[in-house]
Amino acid sequence: xxxxxxxxxxxxxxxxxxxxxxxxxxxxxxxxxxCANIVEHFGFTHLSAGDLLRAEIxxxxxxxxxxxxxxxEGKIVPSEVTIKLLQQAMLDSGNNKFLIDGFPRNEENRxxxxxxxxxxxxxxxxxxxSEEEMERRLLSRNQGRVDDNIETIRKRFKVFVESSMxxxxxxNSKGKVSKIDAGKPVDEVFEAVKAIFSPYNAQSA
Length: 205
Ligand code: UDP
Ligand code: MG
Hints:
With 205 residues, the chain is of the alpha/beta class. It has eight helices and five strands, in the order βαβαααβαβααβα. It has helices at 31-42, 49-58, 64-73, 79-93, 107-117, 131-141, 150-173, 186-204; strands at residues 19-25, 45-48, 97-101, 123-128, 177-181. The structure holds uridine-5'-diphosphate and magnesium ion (MG). Its cofactor is Mg(2+).
């Protein structure tokens, strides 16, 4: 798209426009699962903010303890920390198309990302799912996460409704939200996701 151009071999030559899609939805709405599918079919790089933060804890970084404590409480890590990790991962990838999963989680995240990177998302993919279904998935997925227990799950739901929904509403007011019914089985949800990405992919091919 945009300034990208192709040479005779079909590889990109001109500076590539960075394409970012924010993938948002409550905890357990299926963001990670569907991002893996999108990567496979549409050549995006998947950046899960939560996974980057968990990797940062494991790396023994000086912020590790602070991040761990915030995740355990379902709280939002300071924007500065998360944005640095996202920027580094974007650079490391060598790609120009990104799915940013689970970020921005509040208005401050959103404004800081825009200010620091000057990147506006192409669109926002919003996985809409009932809390009842999300709770069922989180309690049965058993990934050994410190935040997949009922107390933290309830806190994460509250943070999602109070802090993250306003971000989705902000982008919705700009006509940038594609909402998916995420309460269905994985394959059915992916059919809906594909319909959103297909025309978009053709455009940028
Ligand atoms: N988190 C955060 N900022 C982010 C993404 C994640 O602070 O941009 C923290 C937050 O405490 C959140 C936890 O990491 O509750 C897990 O996030 P993840 O996206 O992995 O969980 P999901 O909502 O996808 O289940
Ligand atoms: Mg996730």
